[in-house]
Here is the input.
Amino acid sequence: MRSWVVASFLVAHVGAFRVNNANVQAPNCECATSSLVNGVNTGHAGCDQHFGQRFGYVCYVRSGSCPGARESHSHRGAYWRSCPEEHLTQEAKEYLQDAIEGIEEEDIVTTLAVAVERGVDQATLDLAHQRIEEIHRMGEALDELKTAIGRLDYDRMQAALTNVEEMELDAYLSEEALQKAVSHFSFLGQRRDVSHTLSDSMEEFNVEALMAALAEAREYRVEDDLVHEGEARVAELQHMRTEAANELAASVSTRDVQRVSEAILQAERLTAVDSSVLSGARDRLHHLVLMAEARQSLLQGIRGHDLVGLEHQLARATDLDVEPEILSQGQQRVLRLEAMRDSVIALETAIAGRDSRRLRDTLAEAQRLEAAPDDLNSRAQARLSTLEEMDEAANELRAMFSSDDSTAVRRALDKAREVGVDQDLIDEGERTQRRISRLKHDLRSALLEATESGTDRNELQRLIDECSRLFAASHRRLEAAERRLASLR
Here is the structure.
């Protein structure tokens, strides 16, 4: 109400101001803004009723040359004049400044027109124009706030509130309007958080958490597209749960460690099965890991030559139910290593023995099995050569057992002794040698007797032939026998 009264008062005095202001002030007639004028302290600055209402509005000036100026009786050297025009200008300026402090555009426009008429300084007029523009912006800000309150746009509401706060418009809002704006902004903040929670839940694999987020999103009227997307994600996760449960059940019946491990991880992530099922799957995975380790250990053992270690690895692999074909390979390798071990033992025994045929056969078997190391193979070959030489000497000696050639028997005995033929065979050879010696002795005695007194020419001839063949008699005795044979003709 005051602003309209003031405006009416100012408008009523505009005409008088125009008349009075028509007299342009001469130089040095400006009202002093300080109480110190020409070195005199007047105690009064500016235009005011310094001398009371009877004199009206007056001011001190800088020089007495100002038309209409009078020297002060109480302050000699200081001059004063009437200043109603300046008073009206200042009054118009003050009213305009008061209007600028408010937000009523009509008040500012009215007082601005008067201020222009009364010559208010341009800076103040510019402030009035700026204030009008600011009021326009304030109005737009308030309108935007009202619009934002009716929307579900958090960013727009935040921007509107920020703008109102920066422009200090909250002082012009009713408590109810301000509370409504704050409440709506709080709701939008919670709605935004709920929306983010729903989006985050859709990135995870927790169906229960996602369904809870969906329920809250519906309560806070989150965008339909996001809610529909969340519902689709629930259906997808439920389908994934079913598939994960089925895959877990199928995987534990296999021997595939990676498949079981991945199935467990998926089932855990989707909470697809209860804890007892997961516990059983983990037990199966642990068993499969042990089985895989046993399989790998067995395969390494199969490639090696450690029979004892392989037997242990085969037993563990059998206990852990390693694939039958791998177990079969292990069993076959055990049999081969046992055969190799037995062939080496047999070869060592044969080397220590005197049976060349047995040594030959065991050496061939060890070579077939690739069981004999190089040094054992070399020893076996050397021993076989020795035994073959012994066999040859024994055969030669054995051939002499029915012979009556003492020289041949002696040579065979010498060779047999040299190569180490069995003593029994040598003994037999020596008996043969003694038999031949007795035979030769008997023939020689018979020849001597037949030569001296015998009359059987045929017997004597036989004795001569036998002694000659066996070298049983000396040359001298044979000649005597020949002479005796000749005398019997």
